[in-house]
Amino acid sequence: MQIEIVSDVICPWCFIGKRRLEKALAQRPDIPFEIGWRPFQLNPDMPRDGADRKSYLETKFGGPERAQQIYARISAEGAKEGIPFDFNGIRRTPNTLAAHTVLRWALGAGVQNELKERLFNLYFIEGQDIGDHQVLADAAAAEGMDGALVKSLLDEDRDADVIQQEDMMARQLGVTGVPFFIFERKYGVPGAQEPDVLLQVIDQVAGGTAGDEA
C-alpha cells in the first residue's frame, strides 16, 4: 500500500503524525507499505537564509508568550509519542526548500524516510539549522548518501524549481495544512490523526471500501 505524506520538516505536527503512522503500520505487519514524503513549505516566502527564531515568532504569533502557549500543547502531544521537543533550543527558522530538495534525492537513494526522521530530530531536538547546506549534506552522508555531492548540488540550487512546483501542485490540489496523508494516490486524510483513525483508513483502503476522503 502506498502512503504519501505531504509535510514540512519544520512542522511539529508532521513529526507527531509520523510517529502515529508508525504505530498504525506496526499493527498491520501483513500489509506491505511504501512510504513517501511530498514537499510543502509552511513559510514559502521565507528568505533563503532563514530568519531569527525570535523575530519569526513575533511575526507569526505576535510574540513568544502566545507561541509558548501553542508549543506547550504540541510538546504535550509530542511527549505522548516519545518526542522530546525542545522549542527553546531552536535559534533559527529555516527556509526548507533545500531540505525538501535533499529529501527528493534521498527517495532515489532509498533512504527518504530515514533522512526525514533525521531532519526532524536535528531541528526539533538538537536545534540545528536545517536550512544550512552543510548541515543537510552531513545529514545525507549519515544516511549513506554522498555528502560532498549533496552540498555541491545544493549550492547550485539544483532541483529547487522542481520542489517549488511540487509545493504549488499540493496547494492546487487543496492541501492547506500539513501533515496530509494520501493513500494509494486516491484517498486523503488531513492532520496528525491518531493511530486508530489511520488504521481505519488503512483497513478501508485494503478492503477497497474507502471514500474519497476520511
UniProtKB/TrEMBL annotation:
<dbReference type="Pfam" id="PF01323">
    <property type="entry name" value="DSBA"/>
</dbReference>
<dbReference type="InterPro" id="IPR001853">
    <property type="entry name" value="DSBA-like_thioredoxin_dom"/>
</dbReference>
<feature type="domain" description="DSBA-like thioredoxin">
    <location>
        <begin position="2"/>
        <end position="202"/>
    </location>
</feature>
<dbReference type="InterPro" id="IPR036249">
    <property type="entry name" value="Thioredoxin-like_sf"/>
</dbReference>
<protein>
    <submittedName>
        <fullName>DsbA family oxidoreductase</fullName>
    </submittedName>
</protein>
